[in-house]
Design goal:
This protein has helices spanning 2-10, 12-31, 41-48, 55-64, 80-92, 97-104, 108-140, 155-182, 187-210, 214-240, 276-285, 287-294, 302-312, 317-342, 344-350, 362-387, 389-400, 419-449, and strands spanning 242-249, 251-254, 257-260, 263-269, 353-354. The protein is mainly α. A hairpin with a 2-residue loop joins strand 2 (251-254) and strand 3.
Length: 450
């Protein structure tokens, strides 16, 4: 990796791409410190206090936004409204025949991409409201004030906050597209990656400061290193693991020449969906707490308060079991959608290819779907365990450090770099290095030809 970077900086065009990428990521980090108008600093400090209910959830949001939530910046939504809109369209295309026709038309993918950008705006508006209401609900549990006093009552303030946070999302999205076009790597992924890496040193320092005694500190650091090293190894092993389905192409004779007859394979990944199920399930599992916080305080009963306590504070067996099942189920669902979108059976039949022992057409489609579901079982279980890793560490802490343990306030080594964050970091590094290597190979090839 170091050798590849050294070679990359020797080539002016690749060096410029790397410098442009770093400069744009630096701009994003500066923008992450521009606060939204009307934010109460006292309420924000109380919200970030480890003793506040839901502090673990806030820490995850802050990690994935690159510290924008800690400042309640205009970038507090990050690029997740775009990711949500993108997932929705990916799910709608196989269901709606008209969208399938548009996708197959020349320029159809660009049209769907443009609609995704348009759908990002209402998604960002909704996420802005939901995030503020959720934070207000968490603050009310401790008798605190509102994160933005007057939000909802003052029309001008409400519109200003919603428009600025939506504009921040679109600005982050534009920066990501600039990286994709002018820099190295996938811009949206690198935006998320930079946010995670920017907050990791602060989270390590927070974990050290929150340790109640030296024994707990040694334990937390040991658990963090084990999760980091083992997590990187397992993630690379799972993400790069493939099942190769053999494909044979028929022979065709034209005149004295013979075409085809070659053999290849279809690589079926164990985890073809990356971290998307984690992000989507995390967004869904936060909705009960959001809806419960919308109920007026006077009308809230034990049920509403228990929902906020469980899903807003990320505590209890019900929350972690729901999180695991959502991640597990959505991994299967999204994997099936991706396989259907690829139309592997039809493409093979048009190109004269077939899987040995399997009839072309419907039988091939059923065989690919069956193999995909079998290997996705491993990927879905892996993502489910990654999702509930903070809960597992929390349970272990409650057993071994019972006297110092308080639910929601004790330091949790799994939250320094969350499971989703670790998958994103490893995946983005691998993808960026591959693109960098491709650029180097292309330059070397051109130089050889000259």
């Amino acid at each position: 990796m170091i050798g590849a970077l050294r070679n990359a900086f020797r080539l002016p065009d690749i060096r410029n791409k790397l410098l442009i990428t770093g400069f744009i990521l630096l701009i994003y980090q500066f923008a992450a410190h521009v606060p939204v108008v009307g934010v109460s600093r006292e309420a924000l400090a109380q919200l970030l206090n480890p003793a506040t209910p839901g502090a673990n959830f806030i820490q995850i949001l802050n990690l994935l936004s690159g510290g924008a939530v800690a400042n309640f910046s205009v970038l507090a939504n990050g690029v997740y409204p775009y990711i949500t809109a993108s997932i929705i369209f990916q799910l709608l295309v196989p269901v709606i025949p008209r969208l399938q026709e548009i996708q197959r038309e020349p320029g159809g993918q660009e049209r769907i991409q443009r609609w995704t950008y348009i759908a990002t705006v209402p998604m960002a508006l909704f996420q802005s409201i939901a995030q503020i209401q959720l934070f207000n609900g968490l603050l009310l549990q401790t008798g605190g004030g509102e994160i933005i006093p007057g939000f909802g009552a003052n029309l001008g303030l409400t519109l200003s906050v919603m428009i600025s946070m939506t504009a921040g999302t679109m600005f982050a999205l534009w920066l990501g597209e600039l990286i994709t076009e002018q820099g190295i790597g996938n811009g949206i992924s690198l935006i998320i990656f930079s946010g995670i890496m920017a907050r990791t040193p602060f989270n390590v320092a927070s974990m050290i400061n929150n340790a109640p005694d030296p024994g707990k500190l040694v334990w937390d650091l040991s658990v963090f290193l084990i999760i980091l090293i083992a997590g990187v190894f397992v993630i690379i092993y799972i993400q790069e693991g493939v099942r190769r389905i053999p494909v044979q192409y028929g022979k065709r004779v034209r005149g004295r020449k013979q075409y085809g007859g070659s053999s290849t394979h279809i690589p079926m990944r164990i985890n073809p969906v990356g971290m998307i199920p984690l992000i989507f399930s995390q967004a869904i599992i936060a909705l009960p707490a959001v809806f419960a916080s919308l109920v007026p305080i006077a009308a809230q009963g034990d049920f509403s308060r228990s929902i906020q306590q469980t899903f807003g504070n990320q505590q209890g067996f019900l929350y972690w079991a729901s999180f695991f099942l959502l991640t597990f189920a959505f991994t299967f669902f999204y994997s099936d959608v991706m396989i259907q979108n690829q139309n592997l059976a039809d493409n093979l039949q048009r190109q004269g290819g077939f899987i040995p022992g399997i009839r072309p057409g419907k039988r091939t489609e059923e065989y690919i779907a069956r193999v995909s579901r079998r290997i996705t079982l491993v990927g879905a279980t892996f993502l489910g365990i990654i999702a509930i890793l903070p809960g597992i560490v929390d349970f272990v802490n409650s057993v071994f450090f019972r006297e110092a343990y308080v639910a929601g306030t004790t330091s949790n080594a799994a939250l320094v770099l969350s499971g989703a964050g670790l998958i994103i970091v490893v995946g983005v590094v691998i993808d960026t290095l591959r693109q960098l290597e491709a650029q180097l190979v292309m330059r070397n090839y051109e130089g050889f030809m000259r």
